[in-house]
From TrEMBL:
Name of the protein: Large ribosomal subunit protein bL21
UniProt GO MF annotations: rRNA binding; structural constituent of ribosome
Function: This protein binds to 23S rRNA in the presence of protein L20.
Quaternary state and interactors: Part of the 50S ribosomal subunit. Contacts protein L20.
Keyword annotations: Ribonucleoprotein, Ribosomal protein, RNA-binding, rRNA-binding
Pfam families the UniProt entry points to: Ribosomal_L21p
Superkingdom of this protein's organism: Bacteria
GO terms for cellular component: cytoplasm; ribonucleoprotein complex; ribosome
Keyword RNA-binding: yes
Record-stated family: Belongs to the bacterial ribosomal protein bL21 family.
GO biological process: translation
Amino acid sequence: MEAIFELLGYQYKASLNWDIYIPLLKGYNKGKNILIKKILFIKNNGLIINGLPYINRGIIKAKIIKHIRDKKQICFKSKKRKGFKLKKGHRQYLTKIKIIYIEF
C-alpha cells in the first residue's frame, strides 16, 4: 500500500514502515504518534483512490523517531580580482518519522 500525503506544505510519498525526513515539527517529542489526514492519493493492490483534493476517510499514522539536523550546505561567493570571498553555511532542522499504518 502506497500513499501520497501533504504535511507542512510539502507532498511526500509513503508506504508502510518507511522512514521519511520532514521539516521540524515543533512541540512534538520523540516517540509521539501523529495523525496525517491530508491524503492526496492511495494505491492498494491495484485499487487507486484519488482525492479531490483530499481523501475524506483516509488517515496515516506515523511515529516520531528523532529530531536531527541535515548535513551542511555551503554557499560560497567570490568576485574575481577584488579579494572578496564570502562563505556561509546552513543546516536544516529535520524530523524523522516512521509510517506505522495507512487506512482508508
